[in-house]
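Hey L., structure's done. Input below.
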Amino acid sequence: MKKSIHMTLGRISRIAALLGACAVVPVPAQAQDTPSLPSGASSLQETFGDWRVTCQVSESTKRCALSQQQAQQNGERVLAVELVPGSDNTMTGTLVLPFGLLLDAGVALQVDEQAALASLRFHTCIPAGCVVLLTLNAATTTALRNGETLNIAGKAADNQQDIQLKISLSGLPAALDRLSVLLEG
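Output:
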């Protein structure tokens, strides 16, 4: 139980870092290879449309992720998403949504006008917002690559009215391609 709590707290700490300065998730280095980035850099950040690719090399680990944050004109964060490519065109990630959503209802994701995916439950809430953990299969990853908008549907906690949030997919294919190259090198 104690180990599970420490692992959860560690993940929440990474999520909090994402919201502050775009955290990155570890990708194990290949055996006997020292991980590297272009030109021997220890870290890099690149922007592709509405997405940011971030990589960092520390000791024998290369950490890379792609992310997007959205804020209101006053600078208040609305949402943040971080994705890490897995094997076989899958992705895992974290979605941090604003307070005020009905937690029991969860959220549903939908790419453009395609059929909605299964409803996802909230994992926890932290000072920056409420967290939904993402596990995206190959079909969903392909739909994201080919889509324009990831729609997030939830309900307001106070009046149970439908709430719609949107994540732009502009630049996501190029960001995924670049991340793939960075993880291979």
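The radius of gyration is 17 Å. DSSP finds three helices and eleven strands in the chain.

-- N.
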